[in-house]
Amino acid sequence: MRHESRRFTHMGINYVLMPPLQVGKEAGHNFYGSLLSAGIDFTSFAPQQNRIKIERKPSFPLEILVVGRASAAKPFGQLLVIAPEPNRPLENFASEVQAILDAFQETWPAQNRQIISCDVSLRCLYPSTSRHAFAEIWEERLGQSPGPLQKLGRQVLGGGLRFVLSPQPGDPEPTRVEVKIESYLQDTKMVFVETQFIWPEPRPPGSAFDPVGKLQRADQYLLNEVQAFMAG
To answer: Which of 2, 44, 96, 154 is disulfide-compatible with 127, CB 3.0–4.6 A?
Structure first.
């Protein structure tokens, strides 16, 4: 796959938090103002019972979801920020997330807020160097012939690989990594790659959100380890 021509189709970061958030009309109004003050523009702002959903379309898409309490059995709050079809560099999205977090903490201040878990998701498309993206994965990278696929009894339209990777020993912030490498069904000359970094363990109360560092860490893994794997 042509590494120099990658295109992001999704960027996202998700935080699960304690204590739960008081999400109501007043908090929604305050968050609205804090976002505007932070330079975050949007096209729709929809406060609902226990949640706020914010969207920006179409040029530089952005979605923000704030959930006050996941459920009675799960007394956690949530902040999710994603850019579907982002149309901008990762650095720009990371800066926006930091501004959103500043507005979030201004609206819901908590001295000992705890990050229960966090995950980052990056999805990209790469032009394939083969006649079909699945052929690049199956034949060129795995060294397999098309013959065994005939045993499936039908034409293979696409497919790929999925890896679930354990945390590194001694990592001060243990992360589980999931990687998908697939042919893109909507355009079979493109390779779809998704990298997820998951921080499953609660952090000490008051720990920094560090969205820029987390997004960069996932991106560096994609640029180095994942692309090196595909290069063979």
So the answer is: 2
